[in-house]
Amino acid sequence: MGRHRGKYAEEPSDRSRRHRGRGGAVAALAAAMVIVVGLAVAGVYMFGQGDGCGSSDIELNVAVSPELAPALADLAGDFNNEEHTVDNHCVRASVREADSADVAFQITGSGATTGDTDSHVWIPDSSVWPRLVQSQAGDAVITETGTSVARSPLVVAELAEYADDQEGTTWTDVVPTGAPGEEADRVVRVVDPTRSSSGLATLYLLNGALEEASPDADTFNAQMTAALQALHRGTSADEDSAFLALSGGNAEAPPVMVMSEQAVWRYNTAHTDAAAQPSYLEDGTYFLDYPYIVRSEDSEITRAAEVFRASVRSEAAAERLLDEGFRGPEGELDGGVLTEDAGFRAEQPTELPAPSEGSITELTRFWNQLKMDSRVLTIVDVSGSMLAEVPGTGMTRMQVAGAASAEGLQMFSESSELGLWEFSTNVNNNLHYQEVAPIRELQATDDSGNEHRDVLGAALQAMQPLPEGDTALYETYLAAYQEMSRTYRPDRTNVILMLTDGDNDNPGGMELDELMSQLESMSSPSRPIPIITIAFGPDVQNLEPLQRIAAATGGAAYMTEDPTEIGDIFLQAFSLRIVTEEE
Fold it and tell me: In the predicted model, is pLDDT for residue 43 greater than 70?
Protein backbone atom coordinates (compact mmCIF):
# COMPACT_ATOMS: atom_id res chain seq x y z
CA MET A 1 0.00 0.00 0.00
CA GLY A 2 1.11 3.58 -0.54
CA ARG A 3 1.83 5.83 2.38
CA HIS A 4 -1.74 6.69 3.23
CA ARG A 5 -2.33 9.51 5.69
CA GLY A 6 -5.52 10.42 7.50
CA LYS A 7 -4.01 13.68 8.82
CA TYR A 8 -1.43 16.00 7.43
CA ALA A 9 2.16 15.69 8.61
CA GLU A 10 3.15 18.49 10.94
CA GLU A 11 6.91 17.90 11.21
CA PRO A 12 9.18 20.98 10.80
CA SER A 13 9.79 21.93 7.20
CA ASP A 14 13.18 21.11 5.72
CA ARG A 15 12.78 23.92 3.23
CA SER A 16 14.89 27.02 3.79
CA ARG A 17 13.07 30.33 3.47
CA ARG A 18 14.21 33.95 3.56
CA HIS A 19 12.07 35.70 6.20
CA ARG A 20 11.59 39.47 6.16
CA GLY A 21 12.83 41.54 9.08
CA ARG A 22 11.30 44.82 10.17
CA GLY A 23 13.86 46.87 8.23
CA GLY A 24 13.27 44.77 5.14
CA ALA A 25 9.56 45.38 5.36
CA VAL A 26 10.05 49.17 5.53
CA ALA A 27 12.39 49.08 2.55
CA ALA A 28 9.97 46.88 0.61
CA LEU A 29 7.07 49.22 1.39
CA ALA A 30 9.06 52.25 0.21
CA ALA A 31 10.02 50.46 -3.00
CA ALA A 32 6.42 49.37 -3.57
CA MET A 33 5.18 52.96 -3.16
CA VAL A 34 7.62 54.15 -5.78
CA ILE A 35 6.44 51.43 -8.20
CA VAL A 36 2.74 52.13 -7.57
CA VAL A 37 3.19 55.90 -8.03
CA GLY A 38 5.14 55.29 -11.21
CA LEU A 39 2.49 52.94 -12.61
CA ALA A 40 -0.32 55.27 -11.64
CA VAL A 41 1.33 58.13 -13.49
CA ALA A 42 1.58 55.88 -16.54
CA GLY A 43 -2.08 54.88 -16.18
CA VAL A 44 -1.31 51.22 -15.32
CA TYR A 45 -2.81 49.37 -12.33
CA MET A 46 -1.58 46.22 -10.58
CA PHE A 47 -3.96 43.75 -8.97
CA GLY A 48 -3.95 40.31 -7.31
CA GLN A 49 -1.05 40.48 -4.84
CA GLY A 50 -0.89 42.42 -1.61
CA ASP A 51 1.93 43.64 0.58
CA GLY A 52 2.26 40.32 2.45
CA CYS A 53 2.95 38.22 -0.65
CA GLY A 54 6.45 38.51 -2.01
CA SER A 55 9.22 36.35 -3.34
CA SER A 56 8.83 33.77 -0.59
CA ASP A 57 5.21 32.84 -1.31
CA ILE A 58 4.28 29.19 -0.89
CA GLU A 59 3.46 27.95 -4.37
CA LEU A 60 0.75 25.26 -4.26
CA ASN A 61 0.49 23.29 -7.50
CA VAL A 62 -2.97 21.80 -8.03
CA ALA A 63 -3.67 19.25 -10.79
CA VAL A 64 -7.38 18.72 -11.51
CA SER A 65 -9.51 16.69 -13.86
CA PRO A 66 -10.04 18.80 -17.03
CA GLU A 67 -13.79 19.34 -16.62
CA LEU A 68 -13.20 20.75 -13.13
CA ALA A 69 -10.41 23.11 -14.20
CA PRO A 70 -12.49 26.18 -15.23
CA ALA A 71 -14.26 26.41 -11.87
CA LEU A 72 -11.15 25.57 -9.83
CA ALA A 73 -9.07 28.14 -11.72
CA ASP A 74 -11.64 30.82 -10.84
CA LEU A 75 -11.67 29.70 -7.21
CA ALA A 76 -7.87 29.73 -7.11
CA GLY A 77 -7.87 33.29 -8.46
CA ASP A 78 -10.22 34.42 -5.70
CA PHE A 79 -8.19 32.49 -3.15
CA ASN A 80 -4.96 34.17 -4.22
CA ASN A 81 -6.55 37.63 -4.08
CA GLU A 82 -7.61 36.96 -0.50
CA GLU A 83 -3.95 36.41 0.52
CA HIS A 84 -4.24 33.35 2.76
CA THR A 85 -1.10 32.64 4.76
CA VAL A 86 0.87 29.86 6.41
CA ASP A 87 3.62 31.00 8.79
CA ASN A 88 3.22 34.54 7.45
CA HIS A 89 3.84 33.39 3.87
CA CYS A 90 1.07 33.84 1.35
CA VAL A 91 -0.21 30.67 -0.33
CA ARG A 92 -0.47 30.98 -4.09
CA ALA A 93 -2.57 28.23 -5.68
CA SER A 94 -1.88 27.41 -9.32
CA VAL A 95 -4.45 25.17 -11.06
CA ARG A 96 -3.86 23.19 -14.25
CA GLU A 97 -5.63 20.41 -16.11
CA ALA A 98 -4.31 16.87 -15.71
CA ASP A 99 -5.94 13.73 -17.05
CA SER A 100 -6.69 11.47 -14.08
CA ALA A 101 -5.33 8.36 -15.79
CA ASP A 102 -2.13 10.18 -16.77
CA VAL A 103 -1.43 11.08 -13.15
CA ALA A 104 -2.22 7.59 -11.85
CA PHE A 105 -0.11 5.88 -14.51
CA GLN A 106 2.80 8.24 -13.93
CA ILE A 107 2.82 7.35 -10.23
CA THR A 108 2.45 3.60 -10.75
CA GLY A 109 4.37 3.28 -14.01
CA SER A 110 1.58 1.02 -15.29
CA GLY A 111 0.60 2.91 -18.45
CA ALA A 112 1.47 5.57 -20.98
CA THR A 113 1.27 9.19 -19.85
CA THR A 114 1.42 12.62 -21.46
CA GLY A 115 2.14 16.05 -20.04
CA ASP A 116 3.26 17.19 -16.60
CA THR A 117 1.62 15.08 -13.89
CA ASP A 118 3.46 16.24 -10.75
CA SER A 119 1.55 18.36 -8.23
CA HIS A 120 1.08 19.01 -4.52
CA VAL A 121 -2.70 18.56 -4.70
CA TRP A 122 -4.46 16.18 -7.05
CA ILE A 123 -8.20 16.25 -7.73
CA PRO A 124 -9.01 13.35 -10.08
CA ASP A 125 -12.53 12.70 -11.27
CA SER A 126 -12.92 9.59 -9.13
CA SER A 127 -11.59 7.87 -6.01
CA VAL A 128 -10.92 4.91 -8.29
CA TRP A 129 -7.57 6.45 -9.29
CA PRO A 130 -6.00 6.99 -5.85
CA ARG A 131 -7.16 3.50 -4.86
CA LEU A 132 -5.44 2.12 -7.93
CA VAL A 133 -2.27 4.01 -6.98
CA GLN A 134 -2.40 2.75 -3.40
CA SER A 135 -2.69 -0.86 -4.56
CA GLN A 136 0.11 -0.67 -7.13
CA ALA A 137 2.67 1.85 -5.84
CA GLY A 138 3.96 1.01 -2.39
CA ASP A 139 6.00 4.17 -1.84
CA ALA A 140 3.53 6.69 -3.25
CA VAL A 141 2.45 9.57 -1.01
CA ILE A 142 -1.35 9.66 -1.32
CA THR A 143 -3.15 11.44 1.50
CA GLU A 144 -6.93 11.30 1.35
CA THR A 145 -8.59 14.24 3.07
CA GLY A 146 -12.17 13.00 3.03
CA THR A 147 -13.22 15.97 0.91
CA SER A 148 -15.24 15.51 -2.26
CA VAL A 149 -14.87 18.74 -4.19
CA ALA A 150 -17.83 17.97 -6.49
CA ARG A 151 -20.05 15.05 -7.46
CA SER A 152 -21.77 13.84 -10.61
CA PRO A 153 -23.69 10.57 -11.17
CA LEU A 154 -23.26 8.41 -14.25
CA VAL A 155 -26.26 8.44 -16.59
CA VAL A 156 -27.08 7.08 -20.02
CA ALA A 157 -27.26 9.84 -22.61
CA GLU A 158 -28.91 9.65 -26.00
CA LEU A 159 -29.79 12.21 -28.61
CA ALA A 160 -32.99 13.91 -27.51
CA GLU A 161 -34.69 13.40 -30.87
CA TYR A 162 -34.34 9.59 -30.54
CA ALA A 163 -34.94 9.27 -26.79
CA ASP A 164 -37.88 7.03 -25.91
CA ASP A 165 -38.39 8.23 -22.30
CA GLN A 166 -38.56 4.61 -21.20
CA GLU A 167 -39.01 4.12 -17.46
CA GLY A 168 -37.53 1.29 -15.43
CA THR A 169 -34.38 0.84 -17.49
CA THR A 170 -31.56 -1.13 -15.85
CA TRP A 171 -27.87 -1.54 -16.69
CA THR A 172 -28.52 -4.92 -18.30
CA ASP A 173 -31.10 -3.25 -20.58
CA VAL A 174 -28.54 -0.75 -21.82
CA VAL A 175 -25.81 -3.08 -23.12
CA PRO A 176 -26.58 -6.04 -25.45
CA THR A 177 -25.89 -9.44 -23.86
CA GLY A 178 -27.35 -11.72 -26.54
CA ALA A 179 -25.82 -14.30 -28.82
CA PRO A 180 -24.46 -13.48 -32.30
CA GLY A 181 -27.23 -12.61 -34.73
CA GLU A 182 -29.45 -11.00 -32.11
CA GLU A 183 -29.66 -7.46 -33.43
CA ALA A 184 -29.04 -4.58 -31.04
CA ASP A 185 -31.23 -1.54 -31.61
CA ARG A 186 -28.64 0.94 -30.33
CA VAL A 187 -24.89 1.47 -30.40
CA VAL A 188 -23.58 1.84 -26.86
CA ARG A 189 -20.54 4.10 -26.54
CA VAL A 190 -18.07 4.42 -23.68
CA VAL A 191 -14.69 6.06 -23.29
CA ASP A 192 -11.85 3.50 -23.04
CA PRO A 193 -12.27 1.94 -19.55
CA THR A 194 -8.51 1.66 -19.07
CA ARG A 195 -8.29 5.47 -19.09
CA SER A 196 -11.76 6.63 -18.09
CA SER A 197 -13.58 6.49 -14.76
CA SER A 198 -16.96 6.50 -16.48
CA GLY A 199 -15.87 3.68 -18.80
CA LEU A 200 -14.48 1.56 -15.97
CA ALA A 201 -17.52 2.25 -13.80
CA THR A 202 -19.74 1.09 -16.67
CA LEU A 203 -17.97 -2.28 -16.63
CA TYR A 204 -18.31 -2.42 -12.85
CA LEU A 205 -22.02 -1.59 -12.83
CA LEU A 206 -22.74 -4.00 -15.66
CA ASN A 207 -20.70 -6.74 -13.98
CA GLY A 208 -22.69 -6.34 -10.77
CA ALA A 209 -26.06 -6.31 -12.55
CA LEU A 210 -25.23 -9.46 -14.55
CA GLU A 211 -23.90 -11.30 -11.51
CA GLU A 212 -27.19 -10.64 -9.73
CA ALA A 213 -29.32 -11.64 -12.73
CA SER A 214 -27.39 -14.72 -13.92
CA PRO A 215 -28.48 -18.14 -12.61
CA ASP A 216 -25.00 -19.67 -12.96
CA ALA A 217 -21.37 -18.88 -13.80
CA ASP A 218 -21.62 -20.06 -17.42
CA THR A 219 -24.55 -17.73 -18.10
CA PHE A 220 -22.76 -14.83 -16.46
CA ASN A 221 -19.55 -15.42 -18.44
CA ALA A 222 -21.42 -15.66 -21.73
CA GLN A 223 -23.50 -12.53 -21.13
CA MET A 224 -20.53 -10.57 -19.80
CA THR A 225 -18.56 -11.56 -22.89
CA ALA A 226 -21.34 -10.35 -25.17
CA ALA A 227 -21.62 -7.10 -23.23
CA LEU A 228 -17.87 -6.46 -23.34
CA GLN A 229 -17.80 -7.13 -27.07
CA ALA A 230 -20.66 -4.69 -27.61
CA LEU A 231 -18.81 -2.05 -25.59
CA HIS A 232 -15.57 -2.74 -27.46
CA ARG A 233 -17.34 -1.95 -30.71
CA GLY A 234 -18.50 1.38 -29.29
CA THR A 235 -15.32 2.41 -27.50
CA SER A 236 -13.84 5.85 -28.07
CA ALA A 237 -10.27 6.75 -27.20
CA ASP A 238 -11.28 9.91 -25.37
CA GLU A 239 -14.29 12.01 -24.46
CA ASP A 240 -13.97 14.34 -27.45
CA SER A 241 -14.15 11.37 -29.83
CA ALA A 242 -17.15 9.96 -27.98
CA PHE A 243 -18.94 13.33 -28.10
CA LEU A 244 -18.32 13.50 -31.84
CA ALA A 245 -19.71 10.01 -32.37
CA LEU A 246 -22.77 10.77 -30.26
CA SER A 247 -23.53 14.00 -32.12
CA GLY A 248 -23.37 12.17 -35.46
CA GLY A 249 -25.93 9.51 -34.56
CA ASN A 250 -28.87 8.65 -36.80
CA ALA A 251 -32.23 6.93 -36.53
CA GLU A 252 -31.00 3.59 -37.94
CA ALA A 253 -28.74 2.91 -34.96
CA PRO A 254 -29.10 5.80 -32.50
CA PRO A 255 -26.09 5.86 -30.19
CA VAL A 256 -26.26 5.99 -26.43
CA MET A 257 -23.33 6.94 -24.26
CA VAL A 258 -22.55 6.31 -20.61
CA MET A 259 -21.23 9.55 -19.13
CA SER A 260 -21.53 11.72 -16.08
CA GLU A 261 -24.46 14.04 -15.63
CA GLN A 262 -22.06 16.99 -15.79
CA ALA A 263 -20.62 15.65 -19.06
CA VAL A 264 -24.13 15.67 -20.56
CA TRP A 265 -24.41 19.34 -19.59
CA ARG A 266 -21.01 20.09 -21.18
CA TYR A 267 -21.97 18.15 -24.31
CA ASN A 268 -25.24 20.07 -24.65
CA THR A 269 -23.45 23.38 -24.14
CA ALA A 270 -21.22 22.60 -27.13
CA HIS A 271 -23.81 20.78 -29.30
CA THR A 272 -26.99 22.83 -29.20
CA ASP A 273 -28.02 21.43 -32.59
CA ALA A 274 -27.78 17.79 -31.43
CA ALA A 275 -28.73 17.92 -27.76
CA ALA A 276 -28.55 14.82 -25.58
CA GLN A 277 -31.01 13.72 -22.93
CA PRO A 278 -29.94 11.87 -19.75
CA SER A 279 -31.63 8.71 -18.49
CA TYR A 280 -31.39 7.66 -14.85
CA LEU A 281 -31.33 3.89 -14.34
CA GLU A 282 -33.54 2.35 -11.69
CA ASP A 283 -30.92 -0.02 -10.25
CA GLY A 284 -28.69 2.83 -9.10
CA THR A 285 -25.47 4.28 -10.38
CA TYR A 286 -21.90 5.24 -9.56
CA PHE A 287 -20.84 8.82 -8.79
CA LEU A 288 -17.74 10.65 -9.88
CA ASP A 289 -16.65 12.16 -6.56
CA TYR A 290 -13.59 14.36 -7.31
CA PRO A 291 -11.58 13.62 -4.15
CA TYR A 292 -9.11 16.17 -2.76
CA ILE A 293 -5.76 14.33 -2.55
CA VAL A 294 -2.51 15.68 -1.10
CA ARG A 295 0.69 14.31 -2.63
CA SER A 296 3.30 15.94 -0.36
CA GLU A 297 4.57 15.35 3.16
CA ASP A 298 6.27 18.75 3.42
CA SER A 299 4.80 20.55 6.43
CA GLU A 300 4.32 23.95 4.76
CA ILE A 301 2.83 22.38 1.63
CA THR A 302 0.40 20.18 3.54
CA ARG A 303 -0.76 23.16 5.61
CA ALA A 304 -1.10 25.25 2.47
CA ALA A 305 -3.13 22.44 0.91
CA GLU A 306 -5.38 22.45 3.97
CA VAL A 307 -5.96 26.19 3.63
CA PHE A 308 -6.91 25.81 -0.05
CA ARG A 309 -9.11 22.81 0.77
CA ALA A 310 -11.07 24.94 3.25
CA SER A 311 -11.50 27.57 0.56
CA VAL A 312 -12.91 25.17 -2.07
CA ARG A 313 -15.42 23.92 0.53
CA SER A 314 -16.86 27.39 1.09
CA GLU A 315 -20.42 28.34 0.15
CA ALA A 316 -19.19 30.60 -2.64
CA ALA A 317 -17.10 27.78 -4.06
CA ALA A 318 -20.06 25.41 -3.93
CA GLU A 319 -22.18 27.85 -5.95
CA ARG A 320 -19.42 28.19 -8.57
CA LEU A 321 -19.25 24.40 -8.97
CA LEU A 322 -23.02 24.12 -9.30
CA ASP A 323 -22.77 26.69 -12.10
CA GLU A 324 -20.63 24.18 -14.01
CA GLY A 325 -23.23 21.39 -13.86
CA PHE A 326 -21.87 19.53 -10.83
CA ARG A 327 -23.83 18.46 -7.78
CA GLY A 328 -22.99 19.36 -4.20
CA PRO A 329 -22.04 16.94 -1.40
CA GLU A 330 -25.69 16.30 -0.53
CA GLY A 331 -26.77 15.82 -4.13
CA GLU A 332 -28.05 19.37 -4.58
CA LEU A 333 -27.95 20.97 -8.03
CA ASP A 334 -28.70 24.28 -9.68
CA GLY A 335 -32.02 23.83 -11.45
CA GLY A 336 -31.20 26.70 -13.75
CA VAL A 337 -28.16 24.80 -15.03
CA LEU A 338 -29.30 21.17 -14.95
CA THR A 339 -32.81 21.94 -16.09
CA GLU A 340 -35.83 19.69 -16.00
CA ASP A 341 -36.62 20.64 -19.60
CA ALA A 342 -33.29 19.09 -20.67
CA GLY A 343 -34.16 15.86 -18.86
CA PHE A 344 -32.18 16.37 -15.64
CA ARG A 345 -33.69 15.33 -12.33
CA ALA A 346 -33.35 17.30 -9.13
CA GLU A 347 -33.64 14.12 -7.05
CA GLN A 348 -30.30 12.46 -6.49
CA PRO A 349 -30.19 8.91 -7.95
CA THR A 350 -29.42 5.93 -5.75
CA GLU A 351 -25.67 5.64 -5.25
CA LEU A 352 -23.97 2.26 -5.61
CA PRO A 353 -20.65 1.41 -3.92
CA ALA A 354 -17.45 2.30 -5.75
CA PRO A 355 -15.38 -0.57 -7.18
CA SER A 356 -12.65 -2.03 -4.99
CA GLU A 357 -9.01 -2.29 -6.05
CA GLY A 358 -9.52 -5.99 -6.77
CA SER A 359 -12.56 -5.29 -8.94
CA ILE A 360 -10.66 -2.63 -10.88
CA THR A 361 -7.81 -5.05 -11.61
CA GLU A 362 -10.12 -7.91 -12.60
CA LEU A 363 -12.36 -5.81 -14.86
CA THR A 364 -9.36 -4.22 -16.56
CA ARG A 365 -7.97 -7.70 -17.21
CA PHE A 366 -11.32 -8.84 -18.66
CA TRP A 367 -11.38 -5.81 -20.92
CA ASN A 368 -7.81 -6.19 -22.15
CA GLN A 369 -8.20 -9.92 -22.81
CA LEU A 370 -11.16 -9.34 -25.08
CA LYS A 371 -9.40 -6.35 -26.63
CA MET A 372 -6.60 -8.63 -27.80
CA ASP A 373 -7.25 -9.63 -31.41
CA SER A 374 -8.13 -13.24 -32.17
CA ARG A 375 -6.56 -15.63 -34.64
CA VAL A 376 -9.00 -18.45 -35.23
CA LEU A 377 -9.03 -21.47 -37.53
CA THR A 378 -12.63 -22.63 -37.88
CA ILE A 379 -13.20 -26.20 -39.06
CA VAL A 380 -16.63 -27.39 -40.18
CA ASP A 381 -17.81 -30.99 -40.55
CA VAL A 382 -19.07 -31.78 -44.08
CA SER A 383 -19.69 -35.49 -43.54
CA GLY A 384 -22.86 -37.15 -44.90
CA SER A 385 -24.77 -36.83 -41.63
CA MET A 386 -24.76 -33.04 -42.05
CA LEU A 387 -27.47 -33.56 -44.68
CA ALA A 388 -29.96 -34.55 -41.95
CA GLU A 389 -32.77 -32.07 -41.40
CA VAL A 390 -33.03 -30.18 -38.11
CA PRO A 391 -36.61 -30.70 -36.83
CA GLY A 392 -38.77 -27.62 -36.91
CA THR A 393 -36.42 -25.54 -39.06
CA GLY A 394 -36.78 -26.88 -42.61
CA MET A 395 -32.96 -26.66 -42.78
CA THR A 396 -30.19 -29.25 -42.78
CA ARG A 397 -27.59 -29.45 -40.06
CA MET A 398 -25.12 -28.04 -42.58
CA GLN A 399 -27.32 -25.02 -43.28
CA VAL A 400 -27.94 -24.34 -39.59
CA ALA A 401 -24.25 -24.69 -38.74
CA GLY A 402 -23.25 -22.44 -41.65
CA ALA A 403 -25.74 -19.74 -40.68
CA ALA A 404 -24.73 -19.85 -37.01
CA SER A 405 -21.05 -19.66 -37.92
CA ALA A 406 -21.66 -16.72 -40.25
CA GLU A 407 -23.43 -14.91 -37.42
CA GLY A 408 -20.52 -15.79 -35.14
CA LEU A 409 -18.28 -13.67 -37.35
CA GLN A 410 -19.94 -10.63 -35.79
CA MET A 411 -18.11 -11.39 -32.54
CA PHE A 412 -14.71 -10.58 -34.03
CA SER A 413 -13.10 -7.21 -34.65
CA GLU A 414 -12.05 -6.06 -38.12
CA SER A 415 -8.41 -6.74 -37.30
CA SER A 416 -9.03 -10.30 -36.07
CA GLU A 417 -7.65 -13.09 -38.26
CA LEU A 418 -9.88 -16.00 -39.27
CA GLY A 419 -9.53 -18.93 -41.60
CA LEU A 420 -11.82 -21.78 -42.64
CA TRP A 421 -11.34 -25.51 -43.25
CA GLU A 422 -13.81 -28.26 -44.03
CA PHE A 423 -13.35 -31.92 -43.14
CA SER A 424 -14.83 -35.37 -43.56
CA THR A 425 -12.94 -38.31 -45.13
CA ASN A 426 -10.98 -38.15 -48.38
CA VAL A 427 -11.99 -34.56 -48.92
CA ASN A 428 -8.83 -33.63 -50.77
CA ASN A 429 -7.43 -36.77 -52.48
CA ASN A 430 -6.09 -38.76 -49.53
CA LEU A 431 -6.44 -35.90 -47.03
CA HIS A 432 -9.49 -35.67 -44.83
CA TYR A 433 -9.51 -31.84 -44.68
CA GLN A 434 -8.88 -28.89 -46.94
CA GLU A 435 -8.58 -25.15 -46.72
CA VAL A 436 -11.61 -23.17 -47.83
CA ALA A 437 -10.28 -19.73 -46.92
CA PRO A 438 -6.82 -18.77 -45.56
CA ILE A 439 -6.28 -17.17 -42.18
CA ARG A 440 -6.39 -13.42 -42.86
CA GLU A 441 -7.61 -10.26 -41.19
CA LEU A 442 -11.35 -9.84 -41.60
CA GLN A 443 -10.83 -6.37 -43.06
CA ALA A 444 -8.38 -7.62 -45.71
CA THR A 445 -9.56 -7.70 -49.31
CA ASP A 446 -8.94 -10.24 -52.06
CA ASP A 447 -7.96 -9.53 -55.67
CA SER A 448 -11.60 -8.75 -56.49
CA GLY A 449 -11.92 -6.25 -53.65
CA ASN A 450 -14.06 -8.50 -51.43
CA GLU A 451 -13.49 -8.18 -47.69
CA HIS A 452 -12.37 -11.39 -46.00
CA ARG A 453 -15.33 -11.27 -43.61
CA ASP A 454 -17.70 -11.42 -46.59
CA VAL A 455 -15.64 -14.18 -48.22
CA LEU A 456 -15.91 -16.30 -45.08
CA GLY A 457 -19.63 -15.63 -44.70
CA ALA A 458 -20.33 -16.68 -48.27
CA ALA A 459 -18.14 -19.78 -47.94
CA LEU A 460 -19.92 -20.89 -44.77
CA GLN A 461 -23.32 -20.52 -46.42
CA ALA A 462 -22.18 -22.40 -49.55
CA MET A 463 -20.67 -25.49 -47.87
CA GLN A 464 -22.01 -28.81 -49.18
CA PRO A 465 -21.84 -32.12 -47.28
CA LEU A 466 -20.29 -35.23 -48.88
CA PRO A 467 -23.09 -37.84 -48.91
CA GLU A 468 -20.67 -40.75 -48.43
CA GLY A 469 -18.23 -38.92 -46.17
CA ASP A 470 -17.35 -40.11 -42.67
CA THR A 471 -15.87 -38.11 -39.76
CA ALA A 472 -12.07 -38.10 -39.51
CA LEU A 473 -11.92 -35.92 -36.42
CA TYR A 474 -8.57 -36.93 -34.97
CA GLU A 475 -6.46 -36.50 -38.12
CA THR A 476 -8.06 -33.11 -38.65
CA TYR A 477 -7.41 -31.98 -35.08
CA LEU A 478 -3.73 -32.90 -35.46
CA ALA A 479 -3.31 -31.20 -38.85
CA ALA A 480 -4.99 -28.04 -37.56
CA TYR A 481 -2.83 -27.96 -34.43
CA GLN A 482 0.31 -28.40 -36.51
CA GLU A 483 -0.73 -25.55 -38.82
CA MET A 484 -1.59 -23.18 -35.99
CA SER A 485 1.69 -24.03 -34.21
CA ARG A 486 3.67 -23.35 -37.38
CA THR A 487 2.02 -19.97 -37.92
CA TYR A 488 1.62 -19.01 -34.23
CA ARG A 489 1.17 -15.28 -33.48
CA PRO A 490 2.21 -14.35 -29.90
CA ASP A 491 0.39 -11.00 -30.14
CA ARG A 492 -2.96 -12.70 -30.71
CA THR A 493 -5.24 -15.29 -29.13
CA ASN A 494 -4.65 -18.40 -31.25
CA VAL A 495 -7.65 -20.76 -31.26
CA ILE A 496 -8.95 -23.81 -33.15
CA LEU A 497 -12.75 -23.97 -33.36
CA MET A 498 -14.28 -27.28 -34.47
CA LEU A 499 -17.95 -27.76 -35.41
CA THR A 500 -19.06 -31.39 -35.85
CA ASP A 501 -22.24 -33.43 -35.65
CA GLY A 502 -20.69 -36.80 -34.85
CA ASP A 503 -18.04 -38.83 -33.05
CA ASN A 504 -14.77 -39.77 -34.71
CA ASP A 505 -15.67 -42.26 -37.46
CA ASN A 506 -12.75 -43.23 -39.67
CA PRO A 507 -12.01 -46.97 -39.67
CA GLY A 508 -8.27 -47.62 -39.83
CA GLY A 509 -7.49 -43.99 -39.02
CA MET A 510 -5.80 -42.31 -36.08
CA GLU A 511 -6.80 -43.37 -32.57
CA LEU A 512 -7.38 -41.03 -29.65
CA ASP A 513 -4.28 -42.10 -27.70
CA GLU A 514 -2.03 -41.33 -30.65
CA LEU A 515 -3.62 -37.89 -31.06
CA MET A 516 -3.24 -37.14 -27.33
CA SER A 517 0.43 -38.13 -27.42
CA GLN A 518 1.06 -35.86 -30.41
CA LEU A 519 -0.77 -32.91 -28.85
CA GLU A 520 1.07 -33.28 -25.55
CA SER A 521 4.44 -33.30 -27.33
CA MET A 522 3.61 -30.11 -29.29
CA SER A 523 1.72 -28.04 -26.72
CA SER A 524 3.48 -25.37 -24.69
CA PRO A 525 2.13 -23.11 -21.90
CA SER A 526 4.00 -20.19 -23.47
CA ARG A 527 2.31 -20.79 -26.86
CA PRO A 528 -1.27 -21.78 -25.99
CA ILE A 529 -3.57 -23.00 -28.77
CA PRO A 530 -6.86 -24.04 -27.18
CA ILE A 531 -9.11 -26.40 -29.14
CA ILE A 532 -12.79 -25.58 -28.72
CA THR A 533 -15.27 -28.13 -30.04
CA ILE A 534 -18.98 -27.61 -30.53
CA ALA A 535 -20.63 -30.98 -31.09
CA PHE A 536 -24.29 -30.92 -32.06
CA GLY A 537 -27.05 -33.33 -33.09
CA PRO A 538 -28.16 -36.77 -31.87
CA ASP A 539 -25.24 -38.58 -33.55
CA VAL A 540 -22.81 -37.35 -30.90
CA GLN A 541 -22.74 -40.23 -28.44
CA ASN A 542 -19.52 -39.69 -26.52
CA LEU A 543 -18.25 -36.28 -25.40
CA GLU A 544 -15.42 -37.68 -23.26
CA PRO A 545 -12.76 -37.83 -26.05
CA LEU A 546 -13.51 -34.23 -27.00
CA GLN A 547 -13.20 -33.20 -23.36
CA ARG A 548 -9.78 -34.88 -23.11
CA ILE A 549 -8.62 -32.97 -26.20
CA ALA A 550 -9.93 -29.74 -24.74
CA ALA A 551 -8.24 -30.35 -21.38
CA ALA A 552 -4.90 -31.09 -23.02
CA THR A 553 -4.95 -27.78 -24.93
CA GLY A 554 -6.71 -25.45 -22.47
CA GLY A 555 -9.89 -25.40 -24.54
CA ALA A 556 -13.46 -26.59 -24.03
CA ALA A 557 -15.98 -29.04 -25.44
CA TYR A 558 -19.72 -28.34 -25.75
CA MET A 559 -22.53 -30.62 -26.82
CA THR A 560 -26.12 -29.93 -27.78
CA GLU A 561 -28.73 -31.90 -29.64
CA ASP A 562 -30.16 -28.69 -31.07
CA PRO A 563 -27.96 -27.06 -33.73
CA THR A 564 -29.94 -23.84 -33.39
CA GLU A 565 -28.22 -23.35 -30.01
CA ILE A 566 -24.81 -22.97 -31.66
CA GLY A 567 -24.99 -19.17 -31.43
CA ASP A 568 -25.38 -19.27 -27.64
CA ILE A 569 -22.56 -21.81 -27.40
CA PHE A 570 -20.33 -19.46 -29.40
CA LEU A 571 -20.71 -16.96 -26.58
CA GLN A 572 -19.91 -19.57 -23.93
CA ALA A 573 -16.84 -20.63 -25.88
CA PHE A 574 -15.66 -17.07 -26.38
CA SER A 575 -16.15 -16.36 -22.67
CA LEU A 576 -13.17 -18.61 -21.95
CA ARG A 577 -11.12 -15.47 -22.55
CA ILE A 578 -12.48 -13.78 -19.42
CA VAL A 579 -12.17 -16.78 -17.10
CA THR A 580 -9.31 -16.31 -14.66
CA GLU A 581 -6.06 -18.15 -15.23
CA GLU A 582 -6.44 -19.86 -11.86
CA GLU A 583 -9.68 -21.45 -13.06
Answer: no
